[in-house]
Amino acid sequence: MPDRAIVFPGQGAQAVGMGASLLAADPSVKTFFDKASEELGFDLVDVCQNGPAERLNATDVAQVALFVTAVATADALKRSEPELFEGVTATAGLSLGEYTALVFAGAMTFEAALPVVATRGRAMQAAAEASPSGMVSALMLDREQAEAVCAEAAGDGLLVPANYLCPGNTVLSGDKAAVERAVAAIETAGGRPIPLAVAGAFHTDLMQPAVAELEKALADAEIRPPEIPVYSNVDAATHDDPEEIRRLLAAQVVSPVRWEDSVRAMLAAGVGEFVEVGTGRVLTGLLKRIDRKIAGRAVEAPSGG
After folding, report:
1. Which of these is catalytic: 37, 137, 173, 203?
2. 37, 95, 232, 262: which is the annotated catalytic residue?
3. 7 near 274, Cβ under 8 Å?
4. Integer angstrom CA distances of residue 139 from 16, 134, 145, 174, 287
5. Integer CA distances (angstroms), 153 to 22, 139, 183, 196, in order
């Protein structure tokens, strides 16, 4: 059996109806949603399953919804399909998904991570509302071309690579005017721009107002050395020191997500199979763009659910 990595999705994977098949297959995991509902002050299951989409897509709701759904899915799968977690030698999550990976790896309990994730979502939403900004995917361009677009289109504003997802897919992030200029610059460079429906310029300095609030929440949360290597979005490396993990989680909101680098680091460490746990199959699609020979699959609920 090849070494296996469990990976968890980030913001953007949410969709109205999420978690329905999971709760039908294993109603016991509703306790995770109930705890989150208490933290948030509204019925999370209702928003996940019934929307409206505008509410679910809001950063302060989407991040908690994805985190809770992924943690609950992993919990249910450990009981229904324990063989899925045999030979697991690595875990990671895209941006927000890194918190799920840390819970999966035993570095944080669900109860410790939940208020941190809720704080992160609220703080990032507030930072986005404070500064008109956005994100655009630069498809069909390599990293160097995407970085050149940033240099060309930034002007007097801010425009930087925010997500290095896979070859030919780099997400650019910055103030509104720069992102609008980037759309034309991407087309001129031979790429295809896809503006993203997000609240603001995540993973840039425009998120700096969220850092202090997140640092406080992280300082209050217990973090232990992970039992399974967790690959950081910031540097695509693993870390055992809880204080270093805290520092990187705070830095993550203003740093580019190095997802492709993380996947390649896991491959170099011997991972031969990836299982995406949670909502959707965004990461599974990215894996095939990184290396077509990668074995990968997505699991949203126990089989039969």
Report:
1. 203
2. 95
3. yes
4. 26, 16, 10, 17, 15
5. 44, 16, 9, 17
What is the C-alpha to C-alpha distance for residues 37 and 201, in angstroms, rounded to an integer?
A: 27
At 53, list the tokens: 């989409």
> Which pLDDT tens digit goes with each residue over 234-278?
999 999 999 999 999 999 999 999 999 999 999 999 999 999 999
Q: Is 117 exposed, middle or buried (0-12, 13-18, 19+ CB in 10 A)?
A: buried
Residue whose C-alpha is closest to residue 122's, from 177, 198, 40: 40
Count of other CB atoms within 10 angstroms of residue 161: 21
Angle at 133 between CA 129 and CA 138, to 5 degrees: 140
CB distance 187 to 193 below 8 Å? yes
The answer to whether 137 is a known catalytic residue is no
Q: Is 239 a catalytic residue?
A: no
Average pLDDT over residues 121-138: 95
**Interatomic CA distance for residues 132 and 259, integer angstroms:** 26
